[in-house]
Structure formats: C-alpha cells, structure tokens
Design brief:
alpha/beta; 14% strand
Length: 274
C-alpha cells in the first residue's frame, strides 16, 4: 500500500503498541507502523470515526495480521476510556505508544496568527494536538510493564514551527511547542517507571497535515534547498528514528526532541552562492 521499503528484523518482536493518528497511506504514523511491523511488532490502531476507519482499515489489513482497530475520540473521555479498556482486555499490556494526532482550523493556518486565531480555535488546537498526548500517555503508562520488566516507550510527532516562526503554521506552532514541553514533563514523571518519552521533529513531507497549511509546497521546497543534505525528509528516515526511540536501541534516551529533517533545523542562513 506504499512505495517505501523498510528494513526487516526482530528488534520489536514480542512488543505490542498502539498507533494513534493514521489518516492515509502518506501519514507519518503509517510509515512508522510499517517499520515497527517489519521489525516484528504487534500493532493496534485507533481511529476517530467511521469515515477514517474506512480509509485506515485497508492499510491495516495489508500488514497481513488480524486487524486490531479501536475507535478513540481524543476529545472525549468516555471514548478514551473505552479505547484503552479494549486494549487492556485484549492484550493486558502495552509496550509502546505512537501519538501522531494534531488539528487546527484551516482558516487559522494562513495569514496572521494574531488576527486569525480565535479563542475556540486556540483551545481546540491545544486540546487535540497537545493535551491528547498527555491524556494518552497517562492511560498507556498504566498498561506498560514495570521498570524491572523492561518498561515502555512513547513517541509523539512535532515540527520546527514549534521553535521558530514558520509562515502560516500559526496556532499549530504554539500547540506543537506545548506538545514538546509536555513531552519533557511526561518523560520526567514516567522515567522512574522505566518509560521513555520522546518526540520526533520531522521536516516537511507530503502528508494530509502539510496539505492543510497554506503554502505547504513552498515549505517543502525551502526545506530541501536549505537543508544540509539538500534532500527532502524521507519516510524511511522518520520511521527509522521512531524504531530507534521505541526499541531497546533507544535505551537511556528520553525527554528528547529528535530532528529528522535533513539538517534543516541547524541552518540559520542558507549559502548565498547556492
């Protein structure tokens, strides 16, 4: 169902995890899911509503395993209760969590942040894009093994617009900044339990989320032209980084915001000669 090829192996054999936020075959969450599955992980997928289920189910079925899908509206406590209860009843435990959920109104992802951001839009973006990770982390951690049993791991997805001003990213940049701060505080709280919590700051990619931002194509071209590697961010690179952070390879790494953007984040001014 995708053009990417991911390295196979057994790094995640015996581990079970929840993937939240797959929207279609171009989703970063789907790329991560494919890489984890290629390394032996057993996966559950959450979806918000019936329309998303219809889009995601064929992808999940393409993995060849018995599909494990569960509905989860991150703005509804009862829905989240039911989601994690279903996982607990089926598996009993959860080894890892991938959080790739974010939302902001299209009208607020263009033009002036100051003039276009509404109170309701700000609250909604923060609720869905940042608090949902706090809530999911609380619920997922309750199902993760003890530190003596190996603990667990969590990864959320962010973007450079949380650190620097990016045209039209606006309220989503503020929400991602809150997500990154939340990642550090969650890492502090869950660290003694042996649970590692990190975020991946991926460069611009051709996803549904990028399509919703005015000028998204320009962001991608700039990301490539100004990057140190002079290339687009690849799904293989982002998914491989998630594999590292969620597997035992990532031991001793927590509270980190890992940039996977071909080096774009480290460039202040591009080479004028180029």
């Amino acid at each position: 169902m995708a053009d990417n090829e991911f390295p196979t192996g057994t790094l995640m054999k015996g581990k079970r995890g929840l993937i939240m936020g797959v929207a279609n075959k171009n989703s970063i969450a789907w790329g991560i899911a494919q890489q984890l599955h290629a390394q032996g992980a057993e996966l559950a997928f959450s979806y918000q509503d019936e329309a998303l289920e219809k889009r995601v189910r064929p992808l999940v079925e393409s993995l060849g395993d018995e599909p494990f899908m569960v509905t989860a509206d991150v703005t509804n406590d009862e829905s989240m209760d039911a989601c994690f209860k279903t996982i607990e009843d089926k598996w009993g435990k959860l080894d890892f969590l991938v959080h790739a959920i974010a939302f902001a109104g299209k009208d607020e992802l263009q033009g002036s942040f100051t003039h276009n951001t509404t109170r309701l839009g700000f609250q909604r973006a923060m609720d869905i894009s940042a608090f949902s990770f706090v809530d999911a982390a609380k619920r997922a951690s309750a199902l993760m093994p003890s530190k003596e049993e190996g603990g667990g791991a969590m990864v959320s997805l962010t973007y450079l617009g949380s650190e620097r001003v990016v045209p039209n990213y606006n309220v989503m940049g503020v929400a991602k900044a809150a997500l990154e701060a939340s990642t550090r505080y969650i890492a502090r709280d869950l660290g003694p339990e042996g649970i590692r919590v990190n975020a991946i700051s991926a460069g611009p990619m051709r996803t549904l989320a990028m399509a919703g931002i005015s000028g998204g194509r320009t962001l991608m071209k700039t990301g490539k032209d100004w990057s140190m590697l002079k290339e687009d961010t690849t799904m293989e690179g982002v998914a491989g980084s998630a594999l590292y952070l969620l597997s035992d390879l990532g031991k001793s790494c927590t509270g980190e915001i890992l940039h996977v953007d071909a080096g774009f984040h480290a460039v202040a001014v591009p080479d004028i000669d180029e």
